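Sanity check

After download, print the first record. It should look like this:
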Amino acid sequence: MRDLNSFAISIALLLCSSAVLAQITITADCLPSQIGYRVRQQFSEDNVQLNVGSPGSNQTWDFRGIEAGQAGESEIVDRSTTPNPSWFPNANLIVKVEGDPGTTMYMYIELTSNYLKQLGMAYAVAESSWAVPQTNDPPEWIYPMHYQDSWWSRYYEEETTGGDLRTYTDTSWTTVDGWGTVIVDELGSVPALRLKIRRHTVETDNGVPTNDVWTWNYNWMACDYLPQVVVMESEPGADEDFTSGWFNRIGSISGSGEPVEIVPLVFQLDSPYPNPFNPETTIPYSIHQRTNVELVIFNSLGQRVRTLVSGQVPPGSYSIVWNAADNAGNPVGTGVYYCRLSSLQGNASVQRLVLLR
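Expected structure tokens:
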């Protein structure tokens, strides 16, 4: 079960990426979003020799030929096909994992334009199925994500079996320390970000620690792949330049079914990017129900400068570009501006913008 857990955690926490060389930005919009989308992963069966490569800009990381004999598959599925459709009602993305023979895992994920958070897992065997709630706070992934960003996250679960309480805690400190091209068998060259992750994993059994280790991970993330393209994990206690550890990569992808309906759970104006900006910025926002909305730019005096959206909008995640012009098409000057999203129901959200000419 631990092998299946490790596989599931590795794919649940690294779902979304977007890459454009020289200015790579990872957003939630880059998630592969088709029911039936399948990914086959290849794993090293044992500890293997690795070269994690270098950080920085415009790097090339070539991982062809590294031994990866084990395999596992994951698939985006509809809630109705899960063991119990009522489990984790706030999850808007569900991934089915086939790992150990005879055992299937379903991962329940909350995805917004600001973050990805795992809510729980469900296990299914021939005789029964059961759910395990999880806490992923702060969330594992924060969007949008750029080169040189950093954050920390915490993942926690507990499960009672036969009167024994077992817990699993994974605290991670992540830095996006490189961008460039990753090369792997089957897929060839893929534009990607490299994430350097310091992980502290603690497992307990009835309050007694049974595992307490520090490791390093390197993850290469690229657009349109579920999960990450490549993962390298060090042995416990190794330093960040480790030369042996565990390796997994995507072996193949398939499927093109119906799009998943990723319905936002909140009415929210998300962080514009870039910010400060010149000459334009992208403003993402989420609507959780069909309603009339306004998305308006104001100057520091509270005067309306530009109306970007006005009218009825169905639920969904959106983004719009402001080109630093007013309603008449005239460029506005350097300064502080405010973007306000509001609805007829009284919902409102504001973000601060800085224009540098």
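If your output differs, re-run the checksum step. Summary of this record's structure: The first strand starts at residue 25 and ends at 26.
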